[in-house]
């Protein structure tokens, strides 16, 4: 049972209604994250606007999902693990082995670049940005550059908002996402 109100189009604060309605129209349902974020129209707006920026950064769509799944798993956010697993598997057709390695935070044997990205993401989270020279160099040696570093940080910032909101709220996973949740 969520600890924060879970809004619908009808119950959302006036300043959040239009955004919640647009999500429902686009998805056919309102992900519970959106219902929680609607408690703060500004938090909902931040999530949606930063998501748009994040989706057009210097990383591929697959690399963005590597960050999102890694951060969600590392932060213990089952809701975000489920949502981003669905995106990775259904929309992006990512390798099931890669997705499972991200979900379990184990080595990605088939893609060294994704492994370096996942490791760098976890180091950023664990060290609150204070990564070592060696960690930064390992990330860059995998083929990433300075812009990519900042785009990973943006992805971690976005995931932090979602992961923490869901953790505080104890957000339930929507039925539309349960097949991608931790107990699949």
UniProtKB/TrEMBL annotation:
<dbReference type="InterPro" id="IPR003779">
    <property type="entry name" value="CMD-like"/>
</dbReference>
<feature type="domain" description="Carboxymuconolactone decarboxylase-like">
    <location>
        <begin position="41"/>
        <end position="105"/>
    </location>
</feature>
<protein>
    <submittedName>
        <fullName>Uncharacterized protein conserved in bacteria</fullName>
    </submittedName>
</protein>
<dbReference type="InterPro" id="IPR004675">
    <property type="entry name" value="AhpD_core"/>
</dbReference>
<dbReference type="Pfam" id="PF02627">
    <property type="entry name" value="CMD"/>
</dbReference>
<dbReference type="GO" id="GO:0051920">
    <property type="term" value="F:peroxiredoxin activity"/>
</dbReference>
<dbReference type="InterPro" id="IPR029032">
    <property type="entry name" value="AhpD-like"/>
</dbReference>
């Amino acid at each position: 049972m969520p600890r924060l109100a879970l809004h619908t189009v009808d119950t959302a604060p006036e300043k959040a209604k239009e955004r919640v309605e647009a999500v429902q129209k686009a998805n056919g349902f309102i992900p519970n994250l959106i219902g929680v974020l609607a408690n703060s129209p500004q938090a909902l707006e931040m999530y949606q606007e930063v998501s748009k920026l994040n989706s057009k950064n210097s990383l591929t769509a697959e690399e963005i999902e590597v960050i999102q799944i890694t951060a969600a798993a590392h932060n213990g956010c089952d809701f975000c693990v489920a949502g981003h697993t669905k995106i990775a598997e259904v929309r992006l057709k990512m390798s099931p082995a890669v997705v499972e390695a991200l979900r379990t935070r184990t080595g990605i044997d088939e893609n060294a670049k994704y492994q370096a990205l996942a490791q760098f993401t976890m180091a950023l989270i664990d060290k609150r940005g204070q990564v070592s020279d060696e960690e930064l160099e390992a990330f860059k040696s995998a083929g990433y550059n300075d812009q990519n570093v900042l785009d990973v940080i943006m992805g971690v910032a976005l995931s932090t908002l979602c992961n923490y909101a869901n953790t505080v709220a104890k957000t339930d996973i929507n039925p539309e996402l349960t097949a991608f949740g931790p107990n699949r």
